[in-house]
C-alpha cells in the first residue's frame, strides 16, 4: 500500500522553483533542496525523481506562475497595448529593487545554464518564451515588434541579474514603449 504524502505539494514546488531560481542547476545541491523543501532525499526521489526531474518541476512551476501571469496580462483586452507592454517592462525595474531580483529570470538562467546541454530544458525554455511571444503578438498585433520586445524584456532581466540599476532598465522600457 502506498503511503499518503505528508507535505503540501504546491509549497514544495514553490520551494524547488525558488532554490533553482536563486542558485541555478549546478549551484543547487541536494542539501539545498532538502533544506528548502523540508523533505529528505528519499521522499524527494519518491515524489518527484532525481535532481534533473526536480529542475524540470521547478521550470514547470515557473511557467505555471510567472509566465502564465504575464501571458494573462498581455491578453487582457481591458488594457491598451501600450499599458500591457509598460506593465511587462516594469517587471524588471521592480525586480532591480529586490534581493530576489538579482536571481534574474529562471527562464534566462535556464537558457544560459542548462538548455545548451539538456534537450528537455531547451524545450521548456523555448515553450515558455514562445507563450510570451504569442501573447505579445496578440497584444500589439505585430510579430516583428513582439520579437524585439521579447528580446528587450529578457535582456533587461539579465541586466538586473548583472547588477544594472533601475534607471538603465527604465531607459530600455522607454525605448520599447516609443516603438509601439
Strand-helix topology:
Layout: H1 9-27, H2 30-37, H3 41-48, H4 51-74, H5 81-95, H6 106-113, H7 119-140, H8 143-161, H9 166-178
How would you characterize this protein structure?
This protein is mostly helical and 180 residues long. It has a domain at 58-178. 76% of the residues lie in helices and 0% in strands. It has helices spanning 9-27, 30-37, 41-48, 51-74, 81-95, 106-113, 119-140, 143-161, 166-178. Helix 1 crosses helix 4. The longest helix is centred in the middle third of the chain and has 24 residues, at 51-74. The chain is elongated, with a radius of gyration of 18 Å. The N and C termini lie far apart (59 Å). The model has no long low-confidence stretch (mean pLDDT 93).
Q: Give the rounded overall mean pLDDT.
A: 93
Measured between the Cα atoms of the first and last residue, the distance is: 59 Å
**Strand percent estimate:** under 5%
Shape: elongated
* Portion in helices: over 70%
Largest sheet: none
The number of helical runs is: 9
Specify the structural class. Answer: mainly alpha
| Number of DSSP strand runs | 0
Order of helices and strands: HHHHHHHHH
* Unreliably modeled segments: none
Over all CA atoms, what is the radius of gyration?
Answer: 18 Å
